[in-house]
């Protein structure tokens, strides 16, 4: 073994690695593209051109150890075709990266300045490419491999004693690479969603790769110039086989520089999806790219060694088989390790949520008390998600729509290493005020209420300066529409979120909101059930005690008095006790449940409300006014029976509360009731009284439990209940049932 052996082995290994990496990138671009249009085929074809060149380069290296036969010259001539097309293909890919091919009318101002620059360069490179192809295909200006090795160019088309092809080719590749650098410095604004951000992050990699290719072109030009200088008649005899080692060194240097450039190009393509059209990069694709690099280097070293040692074909085949087997085993091992890591990260989300323990917690318990009472809580899940899975600096989970009334407040996360970040984030005033996106930042509200916002949109980019450090908004959906938004800050490592991470954030956010809402509904229902059972037991005991201790003795005394009467029938003495007994029984019946409600299926929701006021509540108010939107009658007819019943009971509870607590401690205070029903965008029932307000009611203890129950029931059917009150002025209860999307 000598220095030529190691140079040959290294050159063959690098050449094989380039074949694998370029071929993998080409297939990845074509197979993973969002839409396989002409530009995608062009990018994939450009990478295949580079792969084809190194296929011929590898074949030339292998055949050069044998005699210079006809197959060597065939591979030599065939390899010059992709070698000539590769610089132009790279320039075309760079032009696509800077959106030269897809610039639309919205980019007209920028394109009008930068397009002529790129157009001139494109025309120049295409002309040089056509000239070179014409020289090779029609004028036989390409010397054979043997002629090149012997520096004999007399049979080719020359200019001043130098081959025309070898004079034009270095100029051509330098022009292509220089124009590529110029295009990278003067891009056109991207029209693709998130195109500018991904392009900014990929730009350093592409510029570094292009700089390496420029160095390659300069080395190639220098080597060609050196060979042309040595090809002069006075120098031919002085050089012979002594050129083999320097040429092998130059070949290895050029191949190694190209391999580094290919790795950087692959990093830009895979990490930022600049040629596939995807919105976000995919982490699994990035890992596959790293595996492809390991496979390329390992395969190149092993197979290159077998050819350098001139082993038998069966030995090379066995070595390649062992290598592929070992690589596949290592790949499976890493896959299992990643799978175990995924399971470890997701175990808190797929494990028990301890909902039964949560149901037993009273609603007045604080979140800290709930966290101390059970091993898993929503806050812990949210912190784990942001810390271990998403690795963000800050995040906020904001409930919207019907779920907002069931969630205490948005969930917050702030990494302690984040530095100075707004502590308030986008904090909402209260859960009641957060039922609609109107409580968010105005710009974010526009995004969330835009008609173009669909469940297919996974994420929305945000400007961190305008949104207090948040970089992404992930809309959260259910069958009833938008239920929340997951606001994400930048990642701790400063990188881009992957497609998988965004999907995890979306699914986890929806699950967390659903867990919070279902837990709160269950706990409220349990509390109401306990309260009703307690009240029922107390009422039963009270009735038994009154009947046994008061009513029955008085009736018994009256009967005794009647039994002692004489024939004159002096009944005046027993009227008083009988009257008192009647009054007590009447008071007891008044406290018992009222008579059944009107039949909703017959009179409808609005008719039942009017009948309720006329029959039961009219005498409790000095004045009752109605204002019903004509659309409300039609909308109420199409409500499902269960929804109509829930709305009726909620409105009835609001009216009874107004009658019971509106006058406060002054029973002679005038009290008016105003009922307004609006049928726009669903059904809205406003029950307003001009009483003392919530803060001045005498029996405020226990008040509101009924409305809490109805708020929970409304949330189940997709409605909301809001209370607004001003002391000494009014109390307004709004019951809303929003129109459901028919889709």
Task: Note the main attributes of this structure.
743 residues; Beta-Lactamase; Heat Shock Protein 90; 3 domains; 5-stranded antiparallel sheet; 21 helices; 12 strands
Alpha-beta classification:
alpha+beta
What portion of residues belong to β-strands?
5-15%
| Coarse shape | elongated
Main pleated-sheet profile: 5 strands, antiparallel
Number of strands: 12
Mean pLDDT: 77
Into how many domains do the coordinates divide?
3
Please tally the helical runs, counting DSSP H or I stretches of 4 or more residues: 21
> What's the alpha carbon Rg, rounded to whole Å?
41 Å
CATH fold-type name of the largest domain: Rhopdopsin 7-helix transmembrane proteins
Low-confidence parts:
103-113, 363-376, 420-438, 698-702
Helix content: 55-70%
In CATH, the architecture of the largest domain is Up-down Bundle
Strand arrangement in the largest pleated sheet: 4-3-7-6-5
| Straight-line distance between termini | 75 Å
**CATH class category label of the largest domain:** Mainly Alpha
Description:
The protein has 743 residues and is an alpha+beta fold. The protein has three domains: 8-310, Rhopdopsin 7-helix transmembrane proteins; 364-521, Beta-Lactamase, CATH 3.30.450; 602-743, Heat Shock Protein 90. 61% of the residues lie in helices and 9% in strands. It is built from 21 helices and twelve strands. The strands form three sheets. The protein has a five-stranded antiparallel beta sheet with strand order 4-3-7-6-5, with helices on both faces. A hairpin with a 2-residue loop joins β6 and β7. The radius of gyration is 41 Å and the shape is elongated.
């Amino acid at each position: 073994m000598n220095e030529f052996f190691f140079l040959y082995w290294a050159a063959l290994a690098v050449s094989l690695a380039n074949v694998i990496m370029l071929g993998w990138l080409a297939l990845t671009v074509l197979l993973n593209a969002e839409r396989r249009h002409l530009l995608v085929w062009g990018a994939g074809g450009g990478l295949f051109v580079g792969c084809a060149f190194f296929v011929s380069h590898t074949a030339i290296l292998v055949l050069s150890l044998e005699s210079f036969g006809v197959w060597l010259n065939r591979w030599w001539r065939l390899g010059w075709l992709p070698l000539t097309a590769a610089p132009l293909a790279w320039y075309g890919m760079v032009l696509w990266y800077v959106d030269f091919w897809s610039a639309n009318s919205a980019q007209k101002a920028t394109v009008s300045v930068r397009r002529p620059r790129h157009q001139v360069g494109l025309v120049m490179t295409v002309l040089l490419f056509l000239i070179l192809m014409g020289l090779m295909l029609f004028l036989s200006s390409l010397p054979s491999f043997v002629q090149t090795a012997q520096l004999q160019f007399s049979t080719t088309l020359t200019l001043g004693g130098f081959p025309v092809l070898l004079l034009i080719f270095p100029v051509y590749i330098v022009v292509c690479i220089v124009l590529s650098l110029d295009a990278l410095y003067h891009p056109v604004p991207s029209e693709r969603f998130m195109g500018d951000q991904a392009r900014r992050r990929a730009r350093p990699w592409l510029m570094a790769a292009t700089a390496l290719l420029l160095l390659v072109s300069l080395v190639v030009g220098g080597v060609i110039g050196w060979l042309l200088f040595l090809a002069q008649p006075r120098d031919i005899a002085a050089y012979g086989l002594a050129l083999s080692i320097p040429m092998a060194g130059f070949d290895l240097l050029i191949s190694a520089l190209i391999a580094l450039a290919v790795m950087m190009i692959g990093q830009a393509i895979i990490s930022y999806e600049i040629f596939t059209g995807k919105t976000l990069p995919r982490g699994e694709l990035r890992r596959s790219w790293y595996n492809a690099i390991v496979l390329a280097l390992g395969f190149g070293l092993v197979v290159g060694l077998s050819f350098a040692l001139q082993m038998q074909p069966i030995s090379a085949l066995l070595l390649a088989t062992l290598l592929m087997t070992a690589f596949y085993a290592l790949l499976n091992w890493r896959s299992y390790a990643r799978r175990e890591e995924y399971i470890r990260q997701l175990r808190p989300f797929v494990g028990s949520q301890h909902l039964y323990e949560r149901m037993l917690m009273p609603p007045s318990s604080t979140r800290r008390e709930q966290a101390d009472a059970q091993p898993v809580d929503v806050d812990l899940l949210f912190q784990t998600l942001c810390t271990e899975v998403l690795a963000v600096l800050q995040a906020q989970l904001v409930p919207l729509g019907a779920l907002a009334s069931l969630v205490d407040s948005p969930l917050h996360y702030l990494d302690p290493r984040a530095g100075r970040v707004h502590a308030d984030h986008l904090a909402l005033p209260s859960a009641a005020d957060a039922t609609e996106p109107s409580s968010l930042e105005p710009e974010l509200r526009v995004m969330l209420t835009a008609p173009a916002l669909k469940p297919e949109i996974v994420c929305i980019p945000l400007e961190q300066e305008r949104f207090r450090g948040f970089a992404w908004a992930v809309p959260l959906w259910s069958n009833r529409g938008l239920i929340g938004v997951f606001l994400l800050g930048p990642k701790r490592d400063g990188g881009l979120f992957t497609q998988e991470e965004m999907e995890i954030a979306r699914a986890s956010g929806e699950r967390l909101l659903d867990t919070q809402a279902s837990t709160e509904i269950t706990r409220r229902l349990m509390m109401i059930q306990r309260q009703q059972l307690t009240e029922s037991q107390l009422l039963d005991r009270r009735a038994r005690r009154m009947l046994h201790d008061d009513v029955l003795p008085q009736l018994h005394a009256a009967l005794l008095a009647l039994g002692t009467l004489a024939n004159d029938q002096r009944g005046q003495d027993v009227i008083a006790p009988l009257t008192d007994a009647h009054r007590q029984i009447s008071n007891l019946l008044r406290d018992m449940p009222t008579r059944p409600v009107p039949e909703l299926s017959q009179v409808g929701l609005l008719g039942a409300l009017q009948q309720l006021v006329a029959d039961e509540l009219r005498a409790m108010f000095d004045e009752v006014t109605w204002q019903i939107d004509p659309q409300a009658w039609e909308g109420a007819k199409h409500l499902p029976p269960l929804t109509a019943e829930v709305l009726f009971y909620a409105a009835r509870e609001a009216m009874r509360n107004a009658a019971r607590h509106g006058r406060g401690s002054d029973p002679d205070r005038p009290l008016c009731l105003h009922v307004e029903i609006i049928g726009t965008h669903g059904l809205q029932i406003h029950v307003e009284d001009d009483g003392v307000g919530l803060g001045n009611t005498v029996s405020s203890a226990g008040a509101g439990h009924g409305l809490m129950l109805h708020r929970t029931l409304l949330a189940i059917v997709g409605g909301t209940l809001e209370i607004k009150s001003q002391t000494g002025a009014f109390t307004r209860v709004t019951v809303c049932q929003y129109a459901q999307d028919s889709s």
